């Protein structure tokens, strides 16, 4: 492995961080897991980082093939992700996200909590259209097996970094308190709504150039 390949992998790694901005996702993670105890939050962080690694590796190996097979463009994916974000945002702004249910539905609610690590954290917040499109582009540019292994290694390091950052969330929760979390939940809901609309607008502009 020469220096040029190392530079490529480093650029890919930095590009993922720029596209995902995991530091900016941390307040959203705090809001989404405010109803969880420390053990559950750590499990959610682990699930999210593992899901991110799996999504990006699959995108690297078969992303373009899957999109072509189903005739789905990245812009269509961006619109779908935006709709999902807007839906979650309305739930957050209404204060219903993470509402505990002390009845016979508690078990199904527990399953829903575990899924937070996959949707919306891993998809579309962390491994969203930007990260996936970047991964697919690098895969098409550097298709040989050595480069593919190097890119997979970069993804694994990236996912480990996300896991480490999300593990810091309990300290943030303790510092802010429940009132602060409630305020942040609604503010993050508003930001998520704006982000989702931005995703939708960008996707629609690309799908329908006449709208621009």
TrEMBL record:
Organism domain of life: Bacteria
UniProt KW keywords: Cell membrane, Membrane, Transmembrane, Transmembrane helix
Any Gene Ontology CC annotation: plasma membrane
Family: Belongs to the UPF0056 (MarC) family.
Official protein name in the record: UPF0056 membrane protein
Residue stretches spanning the membrane: 6-32, 44-67, 79-97, 118-140, 146-166, 187-208
Lineage: Bacteria, Pseudomonadati, Pseudomonadota, Gammaproteobacteria, Vibrionales
UniProt membrane topology term: Multi-pass membrane protein
Location of the protein in the cell: Cell membrane
Pfam families reported in the protein's UniProt record: MarC
């Amino acid at each position: 492995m020469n220096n040029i390949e190392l530079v490529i992998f480093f650029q890919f790694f930095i590009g993922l961080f720029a596209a995902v901005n995991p530091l900016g996702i941390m307040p959203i993670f705090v809001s989404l897991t405010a109803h969880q105890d420390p053990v559950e939050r750590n499990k959610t962080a682990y699930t999210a980082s593992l899901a991110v690694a799996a999504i990006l590796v699959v995108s690297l190996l078969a992303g373009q093939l899957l999109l072509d097979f189903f005739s789905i463009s990245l812009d269509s994916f961006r619109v779908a992700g935006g709709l999902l974000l807007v839906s979650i945002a309305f739930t957050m702004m209404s204060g219903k996200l993470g509402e505990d249910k002390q009845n016979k539905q508690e078990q199904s609610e527990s399953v829903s909590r575990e899924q937070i690590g996959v949707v919306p954290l891993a998809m579309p917040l962390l491994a969203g259209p930007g990260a996936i499109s970047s991964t697919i582009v690098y895969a098409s540019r550097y298709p040989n097996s050595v480069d593919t292994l190097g890119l997979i290694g970069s993804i694994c390091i990236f996912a480990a970094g996300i896991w480490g950052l999300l593990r810091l969330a309990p300290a943030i929760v303790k510092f802010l308190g429940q009132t602060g979390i409630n305020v942040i939940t609604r503010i993050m809901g508003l930001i998520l709504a704006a982000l989702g609309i931005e995703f939708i607008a960008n996707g629609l502009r690309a799908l329908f150039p006449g709208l621009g």
